Amino acid sequence: MTDALPDVGGNAGHAAFLLPDMGGGGTERLTVELANGFAARGARVDCVLMQARGEFLPLLDPAVQVVDLAVPRLRHVPGALRAYLKRETPDALLAAMWPLTSVAALATRGLAKRPRLLLSDHCPLLEQYARPLRTNLSLRLTAPLTYRAADGVIAVSQGLAREMEQLAHLPQGSVQTIPNPVPKPASSRWGAHVWDDMARPHILAVGKLKAEKNFALLIRAFARLAADRPGTLAIVGEGQERPALEALIRELGLEERVRLPGFSATPGDWYLGADLFVLSSDFEGFGNVMVEAMHYGLPVVATDCPHGPGEALGQGRWGTLVPINDPVALEKAMTEALAATGKPIHQRARAGSFSAKAAVDAYWQAMFP
């Protein structure tokens, strides 16, 4: 899964990556790339999880040690993490996803051998935690107190970096931007057969079924498109919004036109047989799935949400950007993209610029300066 990386040999350092679990999301996919890439370079690597579970867990290289803190709640993390840090003394710790980032900063205070601490977020925090008010207030209080205690803060897009600087009261330009590595996703030998005999064109979306992905918008836009032509929409992923999305599909009479096949360990199968990729999110930190689609030469239509799509698509150079939460604009852009003559070679070239090696190089320098 990871690009070939040189083994630097010798004492390359001990890196730890902290996450809630290894569920099938963009942050978890990034962690797989970094952990495997660091291990390939000869580093000792620990993947430290609140709970050792998730679809991406089997994708970790056997050389990566999985550390199960076995804690169900955040309030149990400081003690368990601190015990691990005292026992294993890693040289660097990268914690991702607020509020786990803030908890990690608290857990490292006063350690006799404190690791170099880096904090990373992958979605716009103010949008993600706008509600409830109590959570929003907690974010606004804890981020300035804890993020300034870190040795470095990393964002996956420039827009997100500026937001984090404002939120945590950090100096302008102090948050480092490292775009996500997005390799070509795995496919099985059956490839596009996952689409079976579904009518073309094949329109694809990939991501966790959660509210901010706004797959309901995509389904409503597809309903408009499907009224005049054949076609199939597949939304590959799993999550808590499944019941609501299934109800919407029934309400619109699209049971035979929209598929929710669940999480796929080989999403390349779906990209291989697709004609168009659509991202309908209300907000994104980066939007890995758009780049995955470009690896397969697919045209991309995406909402111009904060902060990732505009940057990843070059403000429209490599895809079409539409306003958020506008099913009419989204349907129009989908129709035009399906009718246009695509340039797969340009899409693939753009996708290639987000290599695993470039990301591992950047994170390596941040963790082992």
Automatic annotation (TrEMBL):
Annotated keywords: Glycosyltransferase, Transferase
Keyword Transferase: yes
EC identifiers of the protein: 2.4.-.-
Domain Glycosyltransferase subfamily 4-like N-terminal: 25-182
InterPro entries linked: Glyco_trans_4-like_N
Transmembrane segments: none
Gene Ontology molecular function: glycosyltransferase activity
Record-linked PANTHER family: D-INOSITOL 3-PHOSPHATE GLYCOSYLTRANSFERASE, GLYCOSYLTRANSFERASE
Protein name from the UniProt record: Glycosyltransferase
